[in-house]
Amino acid sequence: MTVSLKKAELHCHLEGAAPPLLALAQARKYGVETRDFLRDGAYVWRDFTSFLAAYDAVAGLFRTESDYTLLTETYLDELAAAGAVYSELFVSPDHGEAVGLGADAYIAGISRGIEAANARTGIECRMVVVGLRHKGPERVEWAARYAATCRNRLVTGFNMAGEERIGRVADYARAFDIARDAGLGITIHAGELCGASSVRDALDHVRPSRIGHGVRAIEDPALVARLADEGVVLEVCPGSNVALGVFPDLAAHPLRRLHEAGVRVTLNSDDPPFFHTSLQREYAVASEVMGFTGAELAAMTRTAIEAAFVDEATRVALL
Ligand code: ADE
Ligand code: ZN
Predict the structure, then answer these.
(1) Which ligand minimizes its atom distance to the CA of 194?
(2) What's the structural domain count of the chain?
(3) Ligand 1 mean position to 317 CA, how many Å?
(4) pTM flag (> 0.90)
(5) Distance 213 CA to ligand 2 centre (A)
(6) Closest by CA position to 185, among listed 99, 311, 289, 317
(7) Exactly one of 141, 192, 235, 282 is catalytic; which is it?
(8) CB-proximal residues (5 Å) to ion ligand 2
(9) Which atom from ligand 1 is nearest to the alpha carbon of 133?
(10) Which of 59, 169, 171, 199 could join 95 in a cystine, given CB atoms 3.0 to 4.6 angstroms apart?
(11) Is residue 19 part of a domain?
């Protein structure tokens, strides 16, 4: 897959994008032993629960505003070099709070990284604040209130990630109301670890314009038709899905079937080094394994830009 094909991504978790070498350098700086989650230059995890633990451990290696600036610039520079013009980063103020940095400094550090990468490469990036589902509805509402009031122009959306098998979507609806009322774009992880009913619940209770993953909607043809009818955009992450065992292999992945059913789909890397992928690899796999043509891949990039939580002037310039 050529670097020259224009790419855009809507679904990448910032700490999940930390290159292992950068995480190692951070660990040395802070005297942290990494054996439990990083060995032989690769992140180590067995299942979704240990993946989340490894994610938290990596996040714990970024402790200052400038650590977050460095992480953001490192990721965006590499993405721009792979032909990406736009990225939406999922950022979790909870992780900033966990290291004692605080949400404001966390967002400020990322913001500086976005601006520096934009000045150097032209890549546009916005932040989607993520509430962590396994922390419970009150904490997710805290994240939504933070996103609604933080007044950083690069924070443009709200999402809920984390352990999808905990709680009911309806219990988190108020957090999404807070974010929507503040004018933020709405997306939510669903249909990844849980089946089609989780996607239906997300549509009914949260009314998102996009869904993170959503791929297990394929288990219910009526739901696939509803997604297509309503024009909901799926942030599809094939490499992540296979790495986490959502589907046994890329040949079994439903991206093509969803596309053929008229669902608006995009390609995304999720937590690239954790899943041995990159946005460039996702495009390559879609082409070489799933048979998408260059025109179809270009259309997916266009769908991502159309569905981006970005101001109209920037969107038009990106298209
Ligand atoms: N946080 C980071 N990656 C995630 C994923 N794939 N699903 C849910 N929460 C996440
Ligand atoms: Zn995700």
Answers:
(1) 1
(2) 1
(3) 30
(4) yes
(5) 7
(6) 311
(7) 192
(8) 270
(9) 9
(10) 59
(11) yes
| Domain CATH for 251 | 3.20.20.140
227 in a structural domain: yes
pLDDT tens for the 319 residues of the chain, in order? 578 899 999 999 999 999 999 999 999 999 999 999 999 999 999 999 999 999 999 999 999 999 999 999 999 999 999 999 999 999 999 999 999 999 999 999 999 999 999 999 999 999 999 999 999 999 999 999 999 999 999 999 999 999 999 999 999 999 999 999 999 999 999 999 999 999 999 999 999 999 999 999 999 999 999 999 999 999 999 999 999 999 999 999 999 999 999 999 999 999 999 999 999 999 999 999 999 999 999 999 999 999 999 999 999 999 9
Task: Give every CB contact of residue 199 below 8 A, 6+ residues apart in sequence.
Answer: 190, 191, 211, 214, 216, 217, 223, 227
Dist. CA 283–CA 201, nearest whole Å: 30
Instruction: Please report whether residue 122 resides in a domain.
Output: yes
Structure tokens at 12: 């990448």
What distance in Å separates the CA atoms of residue 140 and residue 134, rounded to the nearest whole number?
9
2 belongs to a structural domain: no
